């Protein structure tokens, strides 16, 4: 088998450590950069370093931003009576596209006993002071509909149920444009449970 230069192998291995990047994709990315203009590789490296240097976690909601508090927490026009609890900052991006106008609380993970991730390894407890200090009337649990996401939502609901704050869960069901015949039983059952008057 032909040996690749050490610097090429190092970059392949660096790409492989990224989530969702397998060996073939890591090789393709590496060889793309090998043949790309040097300026393109430099721009990628610079953007990566700038991201690490200039981003911070918001001390209020734990979303990523360039300032603390983040631009969402600092926005006076947001509805401060609603906090949406999400798993990660990518969820915030998706919900912003859907024109959600409340605040967020980013957990940075879910409870997952198989991976030794308990409530103390993610930002659950930091939500409690916000519920006592701010005029929060509703918490929307928007964790993913996975076993871990459901367990995390249930844990949070139990943790805050005595505080007198309304707790809701985002609706689950069929995505727009999908066919009933391809939906699994759980999705169909939840779509039926969450039906509304037409």
TrEMBL record:
Q: Which residues form the Toprim domain?
A: 81-175
Q: Name one GO biological process term.
A: DNA recombination
- Which molecular-function annotations from GO does this UniProt entry contain? DNA binding; zinc ion binding
Zinc finger (C4-type) positions are: 58-73
Q: Which domain of life is it from?
A: Bacteria
Q: Which InterPro entries does this one have?
A: DNA_Rcmb_RecR, Rcmb_RecR, Rcmb_RecR_Znf, TOPRIM_dom, TOPRIM_RecR
Its recorded name reads: Recombination protein RecR
Instruction: Tell me the organism.
Output: Candidatus Daviesbacteria bacterium RIFCSPLOWO2_01_FULL_39_12
Q: Which gene encodes it?
A: recR
């Amino acid at each position: 088998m032909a040996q690749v230069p050490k610097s090429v192998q190092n970059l392949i291995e660096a790409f492989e450590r990224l989530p969702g990047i397998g060996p073939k994709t890591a090789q393709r990315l590496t060889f793309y950069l090998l043949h790309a203009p040097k300026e393109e590789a430099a721009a990628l490296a610079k953007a990566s370093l700038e991201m690490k240097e200039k981003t911070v976690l918001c001390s209020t909601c734990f979303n990523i931003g360039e300032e603390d508090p983040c631009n969402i927490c600092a926005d006076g026009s947001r509805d401060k009576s609603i906090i949406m609890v999400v798993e990660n900052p990518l969820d915030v991006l998706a919900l912003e596209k859907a024109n959600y106008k409340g605040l967020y609380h980013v957990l940075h993970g879910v409870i997952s006993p198989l991976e030794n991730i308990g409530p103390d390894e993610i930002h659950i407890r930091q939500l409690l002071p916000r519920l006592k200090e701010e005029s929060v009337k509703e918490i929307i649990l928007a964790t993913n509909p996975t076993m871990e996401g459901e367990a995390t939502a249930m844990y949070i609901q139990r943790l805050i149920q005595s505080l007198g704050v309304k707790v809701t869960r985002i609706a689950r069901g069929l995505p727009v444009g999908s066919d009933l015949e391809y939906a699994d039983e759980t999705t169909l059952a939840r779509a039926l449970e969450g039906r509304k008057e037409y």
